[in-house]
Amino acid sequence: MELGGILDVLDKKTILVTGATGFLAKIFVEKILRVQPNVKKLYLLVRATDNMSALQRFNTEVVAKDLFKVLKEKYHTKLQNFLSEKVILVPGDITCENLGVKDSCLKEDMWRDVEVVVNSAASTDFYERYDVSLDLNTFGAKFVLDFAKKCINIKLLLHVSTAYVSGEKSGMIHETPCYLGQILDIKYEKMILEDRLKELEYHNANEEAIKMAMKDLGTQRANHCGWPNTYVFTKALGEMVLHQFKGDIPLVILRPTIITSTYKEPFPGWIEGIRTIDSFIVGYGKGRLKCFPADPECVYDVVPADMVVNAMIAAIMANTDQTSSETIYHIGSSVSNPLKYTIIQKCTYLYFTQHPWTKKDRKSIIVRECKVLKSMASFHRYITLRYLLPLQVLIVVNVILCQAFAGTCKNIERKINLVLRLVKLYQPYLFSTSLYHDINTEKLRNMVRESKHDDVAFYFDPKIIDWEDYFLHTHIPGVVRYEFK
């Protein structure tokens, strides 16, 4: 296989991308348009009710982003003409039959033309409502599969999942199905959900009560079935659905680990949304995070977003027309280039020492080294003795002195709640001993390495990353630029 072969696969290809305004999908679309302008069509499914609202979302949430600045520099005033030739916006919703596409002519065109379906639509909120997460991550996957089966020239369905569908396993996690002994019954999960909603309706629960009940139900079902949170549980269910009903369609399941800012393309450091570790970077840089539970030697599996996209493109090249195949790829770094927590801690401290965050009042935040608690027990002891007990004393004094310290109490309480919320949300990953085996991905990398141009254009080997340099000069500056408000 030559590198030109990858571009040849994209040449004159028609691809449907769901979740087109999402973080990863945007980078995928930008890369395709930048490196292969001869792609035939990109059908982009946008969650919208009509063409006008789909166009507005695409322009404001995709094209207007810095991510597209390289394409803007390349095409200047002709960018919109180029996009109108290559991109067809599809108002729809993956939680509906036929993806919610109402235009019958457009639907027929898609069924006739689409050769590759890339499903990147998902809810990634760990503590999402169960009804929302189940609809998007599980039943949404089924609707995408059903739509792909109606495409007469379909050559591949690429489904973006997550490495954490493996649950809370330790040791080496292989690129195998995530089922814990059996395929769970999604109809049963739907029944539990609907019964709970009926019960809430019977008791005249308000919208906020329903929202919290749905969030709690998601966590309860996930924990009961062996997964740490609603997100990874419903993504695992989605994989099960695809495996069970895929039929003859070639299927690729791509499982990234923690996705971080772009390593190199279209430029270093672009990111959107607070990713897992970024919550701690933001909290620390703003002076709200003084302690943190973690094993300093624990490996955090992260991968830059552009490497994930390059792996997606390589997987399309390698698996198109592989009849009835099902291949799983782990896209991560824990095996080939492990990143330890100590490096993240060191880089975060160095960066904010050299570049302190300046508040609106122009005062700089002076950071100190974050105190690392090596177990959850020591963390809870520290929080109680260092913060919770003094806060209770201050609250009593505040009452005696007629709310003289009300602002201080509120500020301390907010900082404590931030730390507790982050720790509760990410606790399953703070002391994780999982390593994500990537033998299938390594085979994919070897195919790309054999190209005459090496793997310069479609790099996704984490061994090329110097983690200290990346965090200090690329990722943390990107988080500060795009996510510090």
Structure annotation, total helices: 17
What is the N-to-C succession of helices and strands? Answer: HEHEHHHEHEHEEHHHEEHEEHEHEHHEHH
Number of strands: 13
Rg, Å, rounded: 24 Å
Mean pLDDT: 92
The multimeric state of the shown protein is: single chain
Low-confidence stretches: none
Describe this protein with a few key phrases:
485 residues; 13 strands
Overview of the molecule:
The chain is α/β, with parallel strands linked by helices. The chain is built from 17 helices and 13 strands. The protein has helices at residues 3-10, 23-35, 51-63, 69-75, 79-86, 104-113, 130-149, 186-202, 207-225, 230-245, 278-285, 305-319, 341-354, 376-400, 406-430, 439-449, 467-483, and strands at 14-18, 41-47, 87-92, 116-119, 156-160, 171-173, 251-256, 258-260, 291-293, 302-304, 326-331, 371-373, 434-436. The protein has a seven-stranded parallel β-sheet with strand order 3-2-1-4-5-7-11, sandwiched between helices. A two-stranded parallel sheet has the order 6-13. β1 (14-18), α2 (23-35) and β2 form a beta-alpha-beta unit. α2 packs across α12 and α7 (130-149) runs parallel beside α10 (230-245).
